[in-house]
């Protein structure tokens, strides 16, 4: 026979239950607000390139096509806007796959330095165009073996290095550093000496579509989803990502990973 609960205990249970319901309702409200904001942002993101394309195509059809110079220029602008939408759709696909849990984290052992080198190579055209020097700083004895999803970590590094270039200055410097923080963890950091991020924006840069300068980001082909994707991937590994930055000095974004003995 179960001992009977005292009135006080029953009241306590009811209060706990009510508190839990209140928290659940709050969470649902936040999710709903989040969903609404996301949809608003999304339609806004698509409207910009669509209206631009509409404008160029209509102007071409109304006669600008006869002018070879205008023709080429407007078609180039159209292509740029189409590319922006393609980037957006790719990033959205990635986010939804990550959020639905459809994509599983497939951990293997690999050398982090090799992946950094591959990412540097694939972005060589961009670094070269801005005359940026990209180097690797060894904070511990290489090779550093990490245990993570190699393709996803490569994507994180790609997004971070691409941002470091996009928001970096001409003739600037990008550094990728790796350290061992303890027996089982490593810290990987991508640093630049570019425009930096003001303190008031720092807590929000990992949010979807959050940008410190929307016009500038769009202009350089940003979708505002790159850092949100990075955060998702790192958190799916059970690890953390953080940013520190100073306007006009530079930005460093670092994340932790599990390490593995050789
Ligand atoms: P975007 O596609 O706009 O680059 P991200 O999600 O990758 O979107 O980054 C969000 C915002 O954070 C950027 O729009 C930019 O304002 C800021 N940001 C990201 N990386 C850097 C960096 N290395 N230097 C300065 N600002 C950055």
TrEMBL record:
Range covered out of full length: 88 to 349 of 349
Domain Histidine kinase: 41-261
Name of the protein: histidine kinase
The reaction(s) this protein catalyses: ATP + protein L-histidine = ADP + protein N-phospho-L-histidine
GO MF assignments: phosphoprotein phosphatase activity; phosphorelay sensor kinase activity
Biological-process GO terms, alphabetical: cellular response to phosphate starvation
Keyword flag Hydrolase: no
GO cellular component: plasma membrane
Highest taxon of source: Bacteria
Organism: Ilyomonas limi
E.C. number: 2.7.13.3
UniProt keywords, alphabetically: Kinase, Membrane, Phosphoprotein, Transferase, Transmembrane, Transmembrane helix, Two-component regulatory system
């Amino acid at each position: 026979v179960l001992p009977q609960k005292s009135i006080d205990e029953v009241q306590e249970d009811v209060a706990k239950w009510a508190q839990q319901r209140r928290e659940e309702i709050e969470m649902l409200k936040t999710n709903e607000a989040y969903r609404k904001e996301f949809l608003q942002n999304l339609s806004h993101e698509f409207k910009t390139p669509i209206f631009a394309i509409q404008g160029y195509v209509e102007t071409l059809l109304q006669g600008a096509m006869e002018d070879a110079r205008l023709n080429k220029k407007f078609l180039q602008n159209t292509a740029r806007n189409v590319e922006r939408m393609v980037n957006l759709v790719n990033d959205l696909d990635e986010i939804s796959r990550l959020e639905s849990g459809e994509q599983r984290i497939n951990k293997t052992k690999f050398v982090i330095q090799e992946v950094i080198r591959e990412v540097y190579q694939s972005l060589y055209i961009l670094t070269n165009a801005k005359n940026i020097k990209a180097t690797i700083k060894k904070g511990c004895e290489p090779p550093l073996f990490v245990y993570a999803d190699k393709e996803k970590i490569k994507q994180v590094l790609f997004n971070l290095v691409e941002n470091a270039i996009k928001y970096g200055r001409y003739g600037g410097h990008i550094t990728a550093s790796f350290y061992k923080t303890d027996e089982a963890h490593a810290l990987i950091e991508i640093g630049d000496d570019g425009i930096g991020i003001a303190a008031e924006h720092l807590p929000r840069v990992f949010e979807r579509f959050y940008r410190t300068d929307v016009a500038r980001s769009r202009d350089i082909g940003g979708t505002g989803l790159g850092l949100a994707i990075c955060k998702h991937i790192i958190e799916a590994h059970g690890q953390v990502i953080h940013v520190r930055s100073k306007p006009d000095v530079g930005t460093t974004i670092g994340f932790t990973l599990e390490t593995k003995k050789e």
